[in-house]
Specification:
Order of helices and strands: HHHHHHHHHHEEEHHHHH
CATH class of the largest domain: Mainly Alpha
Radius of gyration: 23 Å
CATH topology of the largest domain: hpI Integrase, Chain A
Strand order of the largest sheet: 1-2-3
Oligomer: single chain
Helix content: 40-55%
Structural class: mainly alpha
Number of helices: 15
CATH superfamily of the largest domain: Intergrase catalytic core
CATH architecture of the largest domain: Orthogonal Bundle
Number of domains: 2
Number of strands: 3
Shape: elongated
Length: about 325
Protein backbone atom coordinates (compact mmCIF):
# COMPACT_ATOMS: atom_id res chain seq x y z
CA UNK A 1 0.00 0.00 0.00
CA UNK A 2 1.33 3.44 -0.89
CA UNK A 3 1.89 6.16 1.69
CA UNK A 4 -0.90 8.81 1.68
CA UNK A 5 0.22 12.18 0.29
CA UNK A 6 1.53 14.62 2.88
CA UNK A 7 0.13 18.09 3.47
CA UNK A 8 3.26 19.51 1.85
CA UNK A 9 2.61 17.42 -1.26
CA UNK A 10 -0.98 18.68 -1.39
CA UNK A 11 0.23 22.27 -1.08
CA UNK A 12 2.69 21.74 -3.95
CA UNK A 13 -0.08 20.26 -6.10
CA UNK A 14 -2.41 23.15 -5.27
CA UNK A 15 0.29 25.62 -6.34
CA UNK A 16 0.81 23.64 -9.53
CA UNK A 17 -2.85 23.79 -10.54
CA UNK A 18 -2.89 27.55 -9.96
CA UNK A 19 0.14 27.90 -12.24
CA UNK A 20 -1.41 25.73 -14.93
CA UNK A 21 -4.65 27.71 -14.88
CA UNK A 22 -2.59 30.77 -15.81
CA UNK A 23 -0.22 28.95 -18.21
CA UNK A 24 -1.70 25.81 -19.89
CA UNK A 25 0.82 22.97 -20.43
CA UNK A 26 3.08 23.17 -23.47
CA UNK A 27 5.21 20.69 -25.39
CA UNK A 28 8.97 20.79 -25.89
CA UNK A 29 9.91 22.25 -29.29
CA UNK A 30 10.79 18.88 -30.85
CA UNK A 31 7.49 17.28 -29.86
CA UNK A 32 5.46 20.36 -30.80
CA UNK A 33 7.02 20.31 -34.29
CA UNK A 34 6.17 16.62 -34.61
CA UNK A 35 2.55 17.33 -33.66
CA UNK A 36 2.32 20.28 -36.07
CA UNK A 37 3.53 18.12 -38.96
CA UNK A 38 1.29 15.16 -38.22
CA UNK A 39 -1.51 14.09 -40.56
CA UNK A 40 -3.07 10.62 -40.22
CA UNK A 41 -3.35 8.34 -43.20
CA UNK A 42 -6.79 7.65 -44.63
CA UNK A 43 -8.21 11.16 -44.22
CA UNK A 44 -7.74 14.48 -45.96
CA UNK A 45 -5.76 17.28 -44.39
CA UNK A 46 -8.88 19.46 -44.47
CA UNK A 47 -10.97 16.86 -42.62
CA UNK A 48 -8.28 16.42 -40.01
CA UNK A 49 -7.80 20.15 -39.46
CA UNK A 50 -11.53 20.83 -39.29
CA UNK A 51 -12.84 17.90 -37.24
CA UNK A 52 -10.01 16.07 -35.48
CA UNK A 53 -6.99 18.31 -34.90
CA UNK A 54 -8.30 20.28 -31.89
CA UNK A 55 -9.02 17.19 -29.82
CA UNK A 56 -5.89 15.39 -31.04
CA UNK A 57 -3.66 18.32 -30.10
CA UNK A 58 -5.27 18.74 -26.67
CA UNK A 59 -4.87 15.03 -25.93
CA UNK A 60 -1.24 14.89 -27.04
CA UNK A 61 -0.30 17.98 -25.04
CA UNK A 62 -1.54 16.20 -21.93
CA UNK A 63 -0.36 12.72 -22.91
CA UNK A 64 2.62 12.73 -20.56
CA UNK A 65 4.89 11.28 -23.27
CA UNK A 66 8.39 12.78 -22.90
CA UNK A 67 10.65 11.06 -25.42
CA UNK A 68 10.37 11.50 -29.19
CA UNK A 69 9.91 7.77 -29.85
CA UNK A 70 7.09 7.28 -27.33
CA UNK A 71 5.43 10.55 -28.39
CA UNK A 72 5.55 9.54 -32.08
CA UNK A 73 4.00 6.14 -31.31
CA UNK A 74 1.22 7.64 -29.22
CA UNK A 75 0.67 10.36 -31.82
CA UNK A 76 -0.20 7.72 -34.40
CA UNK A 77 -2.30 5.63 -32.02
CA UNK A 78 -4.44 8.58 -30.95
CA UNK A 79 -4.64 10.01 -34.47
CA UNK A 80 -5.77 6.73 -36.01
CA UNK A 81 -8.33 6.23 -33.27
CA UNK A 82 -9.87 9.68 -33.70
CA UNK A 83 -9.83 9.30 -37.49
CA UNK A 84 -11.71 6.00 -37.19
CA UNK A 85 -14.33 7.65 -34.98
CA UNK A 86 -14.74 10.61 -37.33
CA UNK A 87 -15.02 8.35 -40.39
CA UNK A 88 -17.71 6.31 -38.62
CA UNK A 89 -19.69 9.41 -37.56
CA UNK A 90 -18.80 9.00 -33.87
CA UNK A 91 -18.02 11.89 -31.54
CA UNK A 92 -14.35 12.82 -31.25
CA UNK A 93 -14.67 14.89 -28.08
CA UNK A 94 -12.46 13.73 -25.23
CA UNK A 95 -15.31 12.93 -22.87
CA UNK A 96 -17.06 10.72 -25.45
CA UNK A 97 -14.09 9.12 -27.20
CA UNK A 98 -11.60 8.52 -24.41
CA UNK A 99 -13.61 6.20 -22.20
CA UNK A 100 -13.35 2.47 -21.56
CA UNK A 101 -16.46 1.44 -23.49
CA UNK A 102 -15.53 3.31 -26.68
CA UNK A 103 -11.90 2.18 -26.66
CA UNK A 104 -12.99 -1.43 -26.24
CA UNK A 105 -15.46 -1.00 -29.12
CA UNK A 106 -12.56 0.21 -31.29
CA UNK A 107 -10.49 -2.80 -30.20
CA UNK A 108 -13.26 -5.20 -31.24
CA UNK A 109 -14.51 -3.53 -34.41
CA UNK A 110 -12.01 -0.96 -35.65
CA UNK A 111 -8.58 -2.55 -35.31
CA UNK A 112 -6.95 -4.99 -37.68
CA UNK A 113 -3.64 -6.82 -37.48
CA UNK A 114 -2.19 -9.25 -34.98
CA UNK A 115 -3.51 -9.71 -31.46
CA UNK A 116 -0.25 -8.21 -30.16
CA UNK A 117 -0.73 -5.01 -32.19
CA UNK A 118 -4.38 -4.68 -31.25
CA UNK A 119 -3.61 -5.24 -27.57
CA UNK A 120 -0.82 -2.65 -27.73
CA UNK A 121 -3.20 -0.08 -29.24
CA UNK A 122 -5.85 -0.72 -26.62
CA UNK A 123 -3.36 -0.55 -23.76
CA UNK A 124 -1.91 2.76 -24.98
CA UNK A 125 -5.37 4.26 -25.47
CA UNK A 126 -6.51 3.20 -21.99
CA UNK A 127 -3.42 4.76 -20.40
CA UNK A 128 -3.95 7.93 -22.42
CA UNK A 129 -7.63 8.08 -21.44
CA UNK A 130 -6.73 7.76 -17.77
CA UNK A 131 -4.69 10.95 -18.11
CA UNK A 132 -7.00 13.06 -20.26
CA UNK A 133 -10.45 11.91 -19.13
CA UNK A 134 -10.41 11.04 -15.40
CA UNK A 135 -14.13 11.80 -15.07
CA UNK A 136 -16.96 9.29 -14.45
CA UNK A 137 -16.73 7.75 -17.92
CA UNK A 138 -12.97 7.50 -18.18
CA UNK A 139 -10.77 4.71 -16.87
CA UNK A 140 -9.22 5.44 -13.50
CA UNK A 141 -5.44 5.50 -13.11
CA UNK A 142 -3.92 2.67 -11.11
CA UNK A 143 -4.38 3.06 -7.35
CA UNK A 144 -3.19 1.09 -4.37
CA UNK A 145 -5.26 -1.85 -3.19
CA UNK A 146 -7.74 -0.85 -0.51
CA UNK A 147 -8.09 2.76 -1.61
CA UNK A 148 -11.17 3.99 -3.42
CA UNK A 149 -10.39 6.99 -5.60
CA UNK A 150 -12.44 10.12 -4.95
CA UNK A 151 -15.02 10.58 -7.67
CA UNK A 152 -15.04 14.01 -9.33
CA UNK A 153 -17.67 16.52 -8.28
CA UNK A 154 -20.47 18.04 -10.31
CA UNK A 155 -19.89 21.27 -12.19
CA UNK A 156 -22.00 24.36 -11.50
CA UNK A 157 -23.89 23.65 -14.72
CA UNK A 158 -24.60 20.06 -13.67
CA UNK A 159 -25.82 21.21 -10.26
CA UNK A 160 -28.62 23.34 -11.77
CA UNK A 161 -30.85 20.40 -12.85
CA UNK A 162 -29.93 18.48 -9.68
CA UNK A 163 -31.22 21.29 -7.46
CA UNK A 164 -34.27 21.71 -9.68
CA UNK A 165 -35.05 17.97 -9.49
CA UNK A 166 -34.75 17.96 -5.68
CA UNK A 167 -37.37 20.70 -5.44
CA UNK A 168 -39.74 19.16 -7.98
CA UNK A 169 -40.44 15.86 -6.21
CA UNK A 170 -44.15 15.10 -5.97
CA UNK A 171 -43.68 13.26 -2.65
CA UNK A 172 -43.22 15.79 0.16
CA UNK A 173 -41.05 13.34 2.11
CA UNK A 174 -38.80 12.58 -0.85
CA UNK A 175 -38.59 16.27 -1.70
CA UNK A 176 -37.52 17.23 1.83
CA UNK A 177 -34.94 14.47 2.16
CA UNK A 178 -33.51 14.95 -1.34
CA UNK A 179 -33.13 18.68 -0.65
CA UNK A 180 -31.23 17.76 2.52
CA UNK A 181 -28.97 15.29 0.69
CA UNK A 182 -28.13 17.77 -2.07
CA UNK A 183 -27.89 20.83 0.18
CA UNK A 184 -25.73 19.19 2.83
CA UNK A 185 -23.62 17.27 0.30
CA UNK A 186 -22.75 20.03 -2.16
CA UNK A 187 -23.16 22.78 0.43
CA UNK A 188 -21.27 21.35 3.41
CA UNK A 189 -19.42 18.26 2.17
CA UNK A 190 -21.52 15.66 3.99
CA UNK A 191 -21.66 12.17 2.52
CA UNK A 192 -23.90 9.22 3.59
CA UNK A 193 -21.65 8.32 6.54
CA UNK A 194 -21.96 11.90 7.84
CA UNK A 195 -25.72 12.00 7.27
CA UNK A 196 -26.43 8.73 9.11
CA UNK A 197 -26.13 10.13 12.69
CA UNK A 198 -27.15 13.70 11.84
CA UNK A 199 -30.15 15.11 13.72
CA UNK A 200 -32.06 18.27 12.92
CA UNK A 201 -30.73 19.84 16.13
CA UNK A 202 -27.22 19.52 14.66
CA UNK A 203 -28.12 22.06 11.98
CA UNK A 204 -27.96 25.52 13.55
CA UNK A 205 -29.70 28.24 11.53
CA UNK A 206 -28.12 31.61 12.30
CA UNK A 207 -30.37 33.57 9.97
CA UNK A 208 -28.44 36.22 8.04
CA UNK A 209 -25.22 34.81 9.51
CA UNK A 210 -25.71 31.51 7.70
CA UNK A 211 -26.11 27.89 8.78
CA UNK A 212 -23.62 25.81 10.77
CA UNK A 213 -23.73 22.02 10.64
CA UNK A 214 -22.37 20.28 13.75
CA UNK A 215 -21.38 16.95 12.22
CA UNK A 216 -21.16 14.19 14.87
CA UNK A 217 -18.07 12.01 15.08
CA UNK A 218 -18.25 8.59 13.46
CA UNK A 219 -15.72 5.85 12.58
CA UNK A 220 -14.71 7.55 9.31
CA UNK A 221 -14.34 11.14 10.52
CA UNK A 222 -13.93 13.30 13.61
CA UNK A 223 -16.66 15.68 14.78
CA UNK A 224 -16.55 19.06 13.08
CA UNK A 225 -18.53 22.23 12.43
CA UNK A 226 -19.07 23.16 8.78
CA UNK A 227 -20.73 26.36 7.54
CA UNK A 228 -23.13 25.76 4.64
CA UNK A 229 -22.28 27.54 1.40
CA UNK A 230 -24.62 30.48 0.81
CA UNK A 231 -25.74 28.96 -2.48
CA UNK A 232 -27.19 25.94 -0.66
CA UNK A 233 -28.62 27.51 2.51
CA UNK A 234 -32.19 27.65 1.15
CA UNK A 235 -31.99 24.01 0.09
CA UNK A 236 -30.83 22.95 3.56
CA UNK A 237 -33.69 24.89 5.16
CA UNK A 238 -36.12 23.09 2.86
CA UNK A 239 -34.48 19.82 3.87
CA UNK A 240 -35.36 20.22 7.55
CA UNK A 241 -38.62 22.17 7.27
CA UNK A 242 -41.36 20.83 9.56
CA UNK A 243 -39.01 18.48 11.44
CA UNK A 244 -38.49 18.29 15.19
CA UNK A 245 -35.01 18.91 16.63
CA UNK A 246 -34.81 15.27 17.76
CA UNK A 247 -35.58 13.90 14.27
CA UNK A 248 -32.89 12.40 12.11
CA UNK A 249 -32.39 14.48 9.00
CA UNK A 250 -32.50 11.33 6.84
CA UNK A 251 -34.49 8.24 7.80
CA UNK A 252 -35.73 7.09 11.18
CA UNK A 253 -33.04 4.70 12.51
CA UNK A 254 -29.51 5.80 13.29
CA UNK A 255 -28.02 2.36 12.53
CA UNK A 256 -29.67 1.98 9.12
CA UNK A 257 -27.71 1.01 6.01
CA UNK A 258 -27.82 2.63 2.56
CA UNK A 259 -28.66 6.03 4.01
CA UNK A 260 -29.22 7.86 0.74
CA UNK A 261 -29.66 5.04 -1.79
CA UNK A 262 -33.36 4.38 -1.23
CA UNK A 263 -34.27 8.06 -1.36
CA UNK A 264 -32.34 8.64 -4.58
CA UNK A 265 -33.74 5.47 -6.16
CA UNK A 266 -37.32 6.55 -5.35
CA UNK A 267 -36.81 10.09 -6.63
CA UNK A 268 -37.95 11.39 -10.00
CA UNK A 269 -34.67 12.70 -11.34
CA UNK A 270 -35.96 13.88 -14.74
CA UNK A 271 -32.93 14.93 -16.84
CA UNK A 272 -30.37 14.34 -14.09
CA UNK A 273 -29.81 10.64 -14.66
CA UNK A 274 -28.00 8.90 -11.81
CA UNK A 275 -27.33 11.01 -8.71
CA UNK A 276 -24.26 10.06 -6.66
CA UNK A 277 -24.13 11.34 -3.07
CA UNK A 278 -20.35 10.91 -2.91
CA UNK A 279 -19.97 13.22 -5.92
CA UNK A 280 -21.94 15.87 -4.03
CA UNK A 281 -19.27 15.83 -1.32
CA UNK A 282 -16.61 16.07 -4.03
CA UNK A 283 -18.46 19.10 -5.42
CA UNK A 284 -18.01 20.83 -2.06
CA UNK A 285 -14.39 19.68 -1.78
CA UNK A 286 -13.64 21.09 -5.24
CA UNK A 287 -15.08 24.42 -4.09
CA UNK A 288 -13.35 24.64 -0.72
CA UNK A 289 -9.85 23.83 -2.01
CA UNK A 290 -10.08 26.93 -4.21
CA UNK A 291 -10.90 29.23 -1.29
CA UNK A 292 -8.22 31.45 0.32
CA UNK A 293 -7.89 29.35 3.48
CA UNK A 294 -5.14 27.12 4.81
CA UNK A 295 -4.89 23.44 3.95
CA UNK A 296 -5.34 22.60 7.66
CA UNK A 297 -8.65 24.49 7.69
CA UNK A 298 -9.76 22.62 4.57
CA UNK A 299 -8.89 19.25 6.11
CA UNK A 300 -10.56 20.11 9.42
CA UNK A 301 -13.77 21.19 7.67
CA UNK A 302 -13.73 18.04 5.53
CA UNK A 303 -12.99 15.77 8.49
CA UNK A 304 -9.89 14.39 6.76
CA UNK A 305 -6.86 12.86 8.47
CA UNK A 306 -4.65 12.72 5.34
CA UNK A 307 -4.39 14.87 2.23
CA UNK A 308 -5.02 12.02 -0.24
CA UNK A 309 -8.57 13.11 -1.12
CA UNK A 310 -7.42 16.71 -1.50
CA UNK A 311 -4.70 15.76 -3.99
CA UNK A 312 -7.18 13.75 -6.05
CA UNK A 313 -9.69 16.60 -6.10
CA UNK A 314 -6.97 19.06 -7.12
CA UNK A 315 -5.84 16.73 -9.90
CA UNK A 316 -9.42 16.65 -11.22
CA UNK A 317 -9.61 20.44 -11.03
CA UNK A 318 -6.39 20.66 -13.00
CA UNK A 319 -7.88 18.46 -15.71
CA UNK A 320 -11.03 20.60 -15.83
CA UNK A 321 -9.00 23.81 -16.03
CA UNK A 322 -7.02 22.41 -18.96
CA UNK A 323 -10.22 21.44 -20.76
CA UNK A 324 -11.61 24.95 -20.37
CA UNK A 325 -8.38 26.68 -21.42
CA UNK A 326 -8.75 27.67 -25.04
CA UNK A 327 -11.86 25.49 -25.43
CA UNK A 328 -9.48 22.81 -26.66
CA UNK A 329 -11.65 19.80 -25.91
CA UNK A 330 -14.72 20.69 -27.96
CA UNK A 331 -13.66 18.68 -31.00
CA UNK A 332 -16.34 18.62 -33.67
CA UNK A 333 -18.98 20.04 -31.30
CA UNK A 334 -17.74 23.61 -31.78
Amino acid sequence: MTTPPSRRAAQRLAAQIRDEQVSPPTLPHELAAMLDAYRPTGTTAADYDLHIAATHRAVMIRSGAKGAASFRKLLGVAGNYLTYRHDNHLSVTVENAFCTEQIDHYYLHGLTGSDRTRNDYRSRLHKLAARVNPGPGGPLPGISIGHRAVRPGYSDIEMVPIIRAARRQRSARTRRQLCAIVGLGAGAGLDPSDLRPLHVRDIVDLGDNGIDVHVPAHPKRAARVVPVRRTYEALVREGIAGCRPSDLVIGKQVDRRNVTTGIIDDAELFDVGHLDASRLRSTWLAWIVTQPISLKAVMDAAGLKTARSITEIIADLRNTAEQIAGNEFRGDDT
